[in-house]
Amino acid sequence: MMMKKWAFQRNSEPKTTSETPTSSVLTILMSNLNQSDRRPIIPMAHGEPSLSPCFGTIQMTADAIAEAVHSAKFNGYSPTGGLLPARRAVAEYLSEGLTNKLLPDDVFLTMGCKHAAQNILTVLKGSKSNNILFPKPGFPYYEFLARSCHLEVRHFDLLPEKDWEVDLDSVESLADENTVAMVIINPGNPCGNVFTHQHLKKVAEIARNLGILVISDEVYDHIAFAKNPFVSMGNFGSIVPVVTLGSLSKRFIVPGWRLGWLVTHDPNGILKQHGIIESIKGYFHMSSNVPTFIQGALPDILGKREDHISSKNVNIIREAANSCYKGIIDIPGLSCPSKPEGSIFIMVKLDISAFKDIKDDLDFCVKLAKEESVLILPGISVGLKNWLRVTIAIDPSSLEDAIKRLKSFCGRHSKKSKSVECWLDHIS
């Protein structure tokens, strides 16, 4: 008897675009490292400060976890959406910068910020004709989630010449009767920008006029270190319904703990009226809950946080942003439209015409890894071809070394270096 052909098969390999998982690009870069290079690898492609010793986890957070575990009070299952004391702690923590104070019922605890994003995009998928607006450049994980939910993805531009503000005209031109939401990331990943109060209000007004939800990823909310203070999109919930996403990971340097939150800002009750709140709750009935011992520690972590430690980390990032910006703008072939003001990233523009043997941003990053053991993410991974996304949250000494290696690499591949070599050959 002939066996029936197996019906399952793997998906085709993604091309290297903004649809390619960042982890896949990192795998490509890692596979091109020169194993004989004895210098340390400098990781500037992945946003994880916990890899650098200068960003140590705050001891108080570890103590709070240990106390919660030893208390034996948090060994059971968590209720849907999280323990009430934990949700109350998040509501009070986030309310510090908000006009309309939050209630525990506005807060849903998640397995990190990605889980929060997965929840709200799943809720919004609706019919197959629905679409959602994402920033370009942006965080590619949102696109994978949206497509898995059968949401059509459309991109509005961020404007580098205007400190990466949202191109509001492009938002209006992209939206139609099937658009359900727009996503912003503030402080910005990958742009390192911080939106002003005035600009966020304009975003809220545009979204209200279009009848769409605003989803604001605020995982870097505490890392704003320049002229623009961080303002939560939640302040504009009275203009348009807003969902904010956040987590413990970056402020407390504990990304592996996987504790995040989805918070609704909707004083006019529009989300409840349209069944979104019930759908969010329904999703949590189908998904895993945050470990209860981490929830048990949350009131202590958020209520007794050591802000001087957090400020120290932000100061390190501020100095890194200044050093990186000054170092990069001094390298021929590279430019930065603006100095970073928040988060842990900077976007760098590549002038491909300045190099004699570099095809594009991916080629640049692969050769940089191979020749200098420096890992930087090509801009195509976040939606902008021939740009680079550079992570600045690394040890200051490593950052200094990275700038030197980057300068050496660009000098070696510069068209000008070839002219100099020819000139030297001519006079010798």
UniProtKB/TrEMBL annotation:
It comes from the Eukaryota. Belongs to the class-I pyridoxal-phosphate-dependent aminotransferase family. GO terms for biological process: L-tyrosine catabolic process. GO terms for molecular function: L-tyrosine-2-oxoglutarate transaminase activity; pyridoxal phosphate binding. This is Aminotransferase class I/classII large domain-containing protein. The lineage of its organism: Eukaryota, Viridiplantae, Streptophyta, Embryophyta, Tracheophyta. The keyword Calcium does not apply. Its cofactor is pyridoxal 5'-phosphate. Residues 42-406 form the Aminotransferase class I/classII large domain. Residues 1-22 are annotated as: Disordered. CDD domains: AAT_like (cd00609).
